[in-house]
Amino acid sequence: MTSKRKPDRNLLVIDYRIEEGQYYEAHQQLRVVASRLVKQRDYDAAIETLYSGAKSLLNAGQGGSGGDICLFLIDVFKTSELKPSTTSKGKVLSLLRLFPHQEPTRKRFIGEMISWSSTFGEFPAGDPELHHVAGAIYAEENDAYDAERHLLLGTRDSVTSLARLEYDWYRTDESHTAALYAARAVLPYLLLGNFRDASTSFRLFTNWLREDSKSLGVQEVSSSSFDLRVFPSLPLMNFLGLLLLGAQRGSADVFRLLIDHYTVHLRESASWDEALEQIGEMYYDVRVKRQSNPLFDMMGSLFGGEAGGGQGQPRAKSRRIESSAPAAPELD
Q1: Sign of dihedral through CA atoms 189, 201, 140, 85?
Q2: Which of 85, 132, 285, 313 could pair with 304 in a Cys bridge, judged by C-beta atoms 3.0 to 4.6 Å apart?
Q3: Is 288 or 264 the better-scoring residue by pLDDT?
Q4: Which of 183-192, 194-203, 246-255, 294-303 is the least confident region?
């Protein structure tokens, strides 16, 4: 891409209009100038014009106009086949952080930036850094569902943010529901083939649980490759720990024994069924017949969406997971 002209004069005029509160005029001029530059294939100048204009509008509190220009910027990224780089990602992330919390175009902007990074970058599911920042923003705003979707596809730092999100969410609920929240990180990570972060999220969650709930009587079981904490009063937490432990060996017999032993308690979390079938195939060499792939809708049909409803599903308003308290077995 070669720059045929400098957009400085146009930017000065646009900035002046924004300073004078002429937001509509500045917005329209930005679109006209950028469209002309794109038609001339002067993509560098178009990008700088749109980036500068969007930043000025967002800083002026004009979320709608600024958001529209941000979307135009992503369109130019796609038209010019610009690859995600430190510079291009820096632009979109700096703009993302300027969006007002309730601005409707922000969610679309996040979707478009992920789509761009997926199409022109090296990560089919979208750039992990973009996912991490988007997820962290949603987590700060207590938007758990959208935070989960992005943090699961984020960076190595994302697992701590996700585990903390799930644990803080759990603390608003009854003590016996701990596993339902821990599983919201563990099972999707396993479905994504990310055993490392599945294990890390579980370890972090159980660390916090042990520190905050001294009365649980946690028992420590250690091996050369895995430390397991046994919670006598939380059988489904023990199930998740053993599921991770057994996945390292991959024995179909171990998987069946595990499912059989916890059958009664797993009835309290029927939404796990499809995920466990897939995990059995992926890590334990268990062959099952299945109508759908939970990997594609794991945050929808697997754990429930914002509509909520049903046992083991979160309700968007209260952010609690509904489930009756499972009785503790004599030995876990």
Answers
A1: negative
A2: 313
A3: 264
A4: 294-303
Q: In the chain, pLDDT over 70 holds for what percent of residues? A: 83
Query: What does each C-alpha distance from 226 to 5, 186, 223, 248 come to in angstroms?
Result: 60, 15, 5, 9
**Hey, what are 50's tokens?**
């749109």
What is the DSSP code string of 78-121?
A: HHTTPPP-HHHHHHHHHHHTTS-TT-THHHHHHHHHHHHHHHHS
User: What residues contact residue 119 under an 8 Å CB cut-off, 6+ apart?
Assistant: 78
Helix axes 23-39, 8-19, angle to 10 degrees: 160
The pTM (predicted TM-score) of the whole model is: 0.83
CA distance 216 to 179: 14
Mean pLDDT confidence for 79-88: 97
d(CA 230, CA 221): 7
* Res 7 pLDDT > 50: no
Do 108 and 134 touch, CB atoms closer than 8 A?
Answer: no
Number of other CB atoms surrounding residue 155 within 10 Å: 17
Q: How far apart are CA 152 and CA 42, in angstroms?
A: 37
